[in-house]
């Protein structure tokens, strides 16, 4: 391999990482807009300040944090030459990611059981925001699961090694961002009354 090939490979990796970060920044801006609107709307007369978030949201928070840990451990396993352990941890992350989404829908059901709806005559602006923010995050977790499935398939094909972790790193970075984002959102919705 000559130096120009190495140069192109380094530039390619850098470009892919930069594109991921541009996407993450745009997602941050979108969620910053929704949380800002939430704050502005909290001054309305019909805002419910004593509303409790569903318990399933808190359980799902623990699940997504655990999934971030398993993804990190998977990357470490592959980086240290243990691909079988990496594969098992990626599968665990996938199960935890799907569990997160299931728990989010259970949380939606709990809100509906308590008489809170997204729209309609019995809806409330605060609950509409909670539904919206959680649902949009779920959409991004689905994108994260698609990314994770791609990483898992590539891992099963033997693409990743201690010398080639780019796809795994990109997938893990996006997943960790989704984890951090949900922790921020749940804390935001819990403390901003």
Properties at a glance:
single chain, elongated, 79% helix, 193 residues, mainly alpha
Describe the fold and architecture:
Helix 3 runs antiparallel to helix 4. It contains 5 helices and no strands. Helices cover 79% and strands 0% of the residues. The protein has 193 residues and is mainly alpha-helical. It starts with a helix and ends with a helix. The protein is elongated, with a radius of gyration of 20 Å.
Overview in brief:
79% of the residues lie in helices and 0% in strands. It has 193 residues and is an all-alpha fold.
Task: Give the helices and strands, then pairings.
Elements lengths: L2 H39 L13 H25 L3 H31 L11 H32 L9 H26 L2
Low-confidence stretches: none
Distance between the termini: 60 Å
- Strand count, sense and closure of the main sheet? none
Element-level helix/strand string: HHHHH
Q: Calculate Rg over CA atoms.
A: 20 Å
Structural class: mainly alpha
User: How many H/I helical runs?
Assistant: 5
Query: What is the percent of helical residues?
Result: over 70%
